[in-house]
Amino acid sequence: MSPKVEIIFLGTGGGRFATITQKRRTAGIRIISEALNLHLDPGPGALVHSVNEGLDPQKIGAIFVSHSHPDHYTDAEVLIEAMTRGMTRKRGVLAAAKSVLSGNDVCEPSISKYH
């Protein structure tokens, strides 16, 4: 029997106009299995919509941010806070594009050095 993997779309919107209007939420995707609890591209509303769907953000084990657009990273820091129990535990994994962590010629880093 194959392991069960659950994919929960907390938002399927993307781009600046979907982000501005939130007609299609931009909260990202949660992928949950027995071995994994990952939040992919936690844009605006990721924390709130996770809680509304009954998904405990403190159970996240990994966060993946694909690139430095606001609809992909804005709630990453609050989910890092949840994953690390308010930055009191060194736990979980943050995987992100280099531009997200270090910035580039167009964008500043999207995740603070603190996080």
Q: Can you describe this structure?
A:
This protein is α/β, with parallel strands linked by helices. It has one domain: 4-Layer Sandwich (Metallo-beta-lactamase, Chain A). It is 26% helix and 19% strand. A five-stranded mixed β-sheet has the order 1-2-3-4-5. The longest helix has 8 residues. It is globular, with a radius of gyration of 14 Å. The relative contact order is 0.17. The mean pLDDT is 95.
Attribute tags:
globular, Metallo-beta-lactamase, Chain A, 5 helices, 115 residues, alpha/beta
Tell me the span between the first and last alpha carbons: 39 Å
Order of helices and strands: EHEEHEHHEH
Q: How many domains comprise the coordinates?
A: 1
Can you tell me the CATH class? Alpha Beta
The radius of gyration is 14 Å
The residue fraction in helices comes out at: 25-40%
CATH architecture field? 4-Layer Sandwich
What is the name of the CATH topology?
A: Metallo-beta-lactamase, Chain A
Largest sheet: 5 strands, mixed
> How many runs of DSSP E, i.e. beta strands?
5
Strand content range: 15-25%
Mean pLDDT: 95
Write the CATH homologous superfamily: Ribonuclease Z/Hydroxyacylglutathione hydrolase-like
Please render the helix and strand layout as text.
Blueprint: E1 5-9, H1 16-21, E2 29-33, E3 37-40, H2 46-52, E4 62-65, H3 70-73, H4 76-83, E5 93-96, H5 98-102
Parallel strand pairs: 3-4, 4-5
Antiparallel strand pairs: 1-2, 2-3
